[in-house]
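Page header: ASSEMBLY MODEL / two components / 644 residues total.
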Amino acid sequence: MSSLVIGGIVVLIMAGLMILGVPIAFALGLTALISVVLFLDVAQLNFFGNFVFESLNDFALLSIPLFVLMGVIFGQSKASEDLFEVTNMWLSRLRGGLGMSSVLACSIFAALTGSSPATSAAIGKIAIPEMRKRGYSNQVATGAIVAGGTLGILIPPSVTLILYGISTEQSIGQLFLGGVVPGILVTALFCAWIVAAITLERRGMVHQETAGQGMGVAAEPESHTWGERFKGLFKVLPFVVLIVAILAVLYLGVATPSEAAGVGALFAFLLVAVLYRSMSWKKLMDMSLETTRTSTMILMIVAFSAVIGQVLSFLNVPQDLAGAISELQVNRWIIFIAMNVLFLVLGFFLPPVSIILITMPVLFPIITALEFDPIWFGVVMTLNMEMGLITPPVGLNLYVVQGIAPDVPLRDILAGALPYVAVLAGGILILALFPGLVTWLPNRVLGGG
Amino acid sequence: MDTPDRPEKFFLLRWVDRVSDAAGYVSGVLLLVSTLVICEAVALRYFIGAPTVWQTELSVYLLMFAAFVGGAYGLKHGDHVNVDIVIDKLPRRARGVATIVAAVLGLLFVAVVAYISFGLWWHATETGQRSGTAWNPRMTFPYFIIPLGTTLMSLQYVSIIYDRVQDLRFGADKGGDRPRDLEEVDENMEGSVNQ
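Prediction written out in full:
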């Protein structure tokens, strides 16, 4: 049997198990088990245990629970309120300033927590009521938060980029640095869309007023003195310093990502305990349980996707697929677009973590064979995954925002969020035209990553 | 809020649920310990230039513990993400059956892994295998993590299957059949990192 046919059968088994509702991690493992029995030899099952053990026997993986812990600590603190207050002080006088300050607060909070749903929930809880009070339409107010939250998987430290780095054996430090400029770029693009959306709505004001949220009754934005603004800046400074310090440590190559995450989590704990004086044993236990739940979910998928990756590689599937595709002699950008369409479709159903871990063992040889920069590809892929968080039926952020703004119809949230899919696609286009935006910073790494 | 004719859960299975909860707490504490272990290694290296000997290895084993033993806790609380858009479209009874089939497949898998990894652990114990690093611990301890975790997950799956079968027979527990979705929204708001 040709290895590509075997690959097809494996994909069908996997899809069947997932559609039945078997947890993704176990569906991957069961597929690997069935593949060994069908295509290899039952005697090989003994290696199975070793694969599982070795797949988690990796110090770099420890950065996942530790960054998750750091995120959970910030997620349960009042940092989100302070961030929004300060970004708002600086931007409130501009047109769309409140919307832009929501996105900016999201991007900083995303860096602190690395989690898209947590960012949407924490910032959205404060920002959405505020925006609606100021006459923002439902669409603009919720769209900014749904999209702003997706920055969580792009802006470093990001669990998604860690997993890409581990499954493709790329430097996590370089991936983080590669995400910095695109993170700022996408934040700016989101802000630009908010201004554009508000301008478009004002032109067609009549429609908006019949929708109930009249722009005419919008409250005037408060003005803040420069003294207040700088005082506010001082309040969020420790958080920004922590993120910059983590990136700097990786840039200088003095610590591994796991070490940076461990120390980062400790400092996050101290910051929250000292600045907000809201820490107790019970809270600490809750946070560690929360971390365990998220980590076990991710790490189980890591463990069993590594096993199916190994089995497929035994069966020569990725190697032959890469060979077949490079023999096709089509333009590599056609294949790039095809892969992005595949990721987008998978993103309708699966979370980013699973998509990366399932596809990379098979597709990564193609990416290197076509001479795409692996760091650049990881960042572009993450942008693509952000779309999956916005698009139904699974689009996690949509439902998070619906949960915190239950009186906004899902229809409005969708209408507000969908334009950001186009904005993200535009972001991918910009990065494809100017790959230097991703590769410039990591290429200057001092410690060699 | 059991309906009157729904019998109380078999006491051994109630114990399984309790053990899974305990596994979560232990895993949580060990993750905090691994944070401190790493910070200690970094501090020693930074201040007195001491080399990292046992910290890296130990913290990786703690990670494995949280992943596999904590996995039982995650299973009990429905944390292991799955694709549910298809089964959610099914009528109530068909959905109940599909959930049970999925759980049986999951049980089959974790039980097989438990069986295989017990063999691996036993082999490491019999031969007195060591890790061969500077710290050089006996491998019997880290190799025990996977069989322990997958055994706990198998037991938790038995408990879940029992619950789902009882749901089919006596109607869903705790009134209404959509509590899980509500719980999911709550969890996301708490900041669960389901990305």
